[in-house]
Design goal:
This protein is an alpha/beta fold and 280 residues long. The chain has seven helices and 14 strands.
Length: 280
């Protein structure tokens, strides 16, 4: 368990290497913050249901994310859906169905798991210019998130499957802005899975699906252990999909996987996501 200060908050602890192997190969890694300490010992629900929210279509300078629908339907199984591949029973709200009003209404249903796959733009020191892209093209800013009241109350795990959602920092004026992940904890989330840098669309889908499959496969599996095993799966080449993809942030940069037998073995692909808060 890591309690990190200042720039250490942005070090991917799982990717530290001693010359023989990565830290993730030996230990589970969890970050805790003052916002999370009161809920660290809470026991998770016996059965998880999930709310999946995502953006796949392009908006302004943000490119399309074709892996997002695959990711959401690979995680969440809807009763009305033709396919039943999802791990958790629940609801998926994609593109136009995902806006500020539908988000708030769905969160009032108190799903234990809320999974958001979209673009996130972080601007150091500026809460109004740092925002999550919603499916109708509008923005949920950190300023709006900060002013909400218990928006994520009852959420046992909020997964922010987007770029830079664990990033905070000072602007040019020295003003500190807390990360999406920390603000979400202040809004009631018991645990947050968030990212330290811009993530690739395709590899993120692989990591997320593996994480939920492992967490749900056996009763009592810790979130921290499921994340570790999912990261190891990418590190060691146990993936089914290796393709060049866009990143889940500003711009249309294309990110290619490696060409060896483990295309997502580089820490860039598996190490950005950190678990903050309740590890159970």
């Amino acid at each position: 368990m890591w309690s990190l200060d200042d720039v250490l908050r942005y070090v991917p602890m799982a990717a530290l290497h001693d010359g023989n192997g990565y830290l993730v190969e030996r230990y589970r890694n969890v970050v805790f913050t003052p916002a999370s300490t009161t809920r660290l010992k809470d026991e998770p629900s016996a059965t998880w249901t999930g709310l999946g929210l995502g953006v796949s279509k392009p908006h302004d300078q943000f490119p399309a994310l074709p892996a997002v629908p695959e990711e959401l339907h690979g995680i969440i199984r809807e009763q009305t859906a033709a396919t039943t591949n999802g791990v958790l029973a629940g609801r998926v709200m994609l593109d136009e169905a995902f806006n500020a009003d539908t988000l708030k209404a769905a969160l009032r249903q108190r799903y234990p798991v809320v999974h958001i796959a979209s673009h996130f733009q972080f601007t150091p020191g500026n809460e109004t210019s740092s925002f999550l892209l919603l499916g109708d093209g509008t923005h949920l800013t950190l300023a709006q998130l900060k002013s909400a009241t218990n928006l994520f109350s009852g959420v046992e795990l909020l997964t922010l499957s987007a770029c830079d959602t664990a990033a905070g920092g000072e602007g040019a004026d020295g003003r500190e802005v807390e990360s999406f992940g920390v603000l979400a904890q202040r809004q009631g989330a018991k645990a947050v899975l968030a990212s330290l840098w811009p993530v690739a669309d395709a590899s993120t889908k692989e990591l997320m699906e593996k994480f939920y499959q492992l967490r749900n496969a056996q009763a009592g599996t810790l979130k921290a252990e499921a994340l570790r095993q999912a990261q190891l799966a990418l590190l060691r080449g146990a993936t089914t999909d290796a393709r060049t993809s866009t990143r889940r942030g500003l711009g249309d940069e294309r990110i290619a996987p490696g060409s060896n037998g483990a295309p997502y073995a580089h820490p860039y692909f598996w190490a950005p996501f950190i678990l903050i808060g309740n590890w159970k």
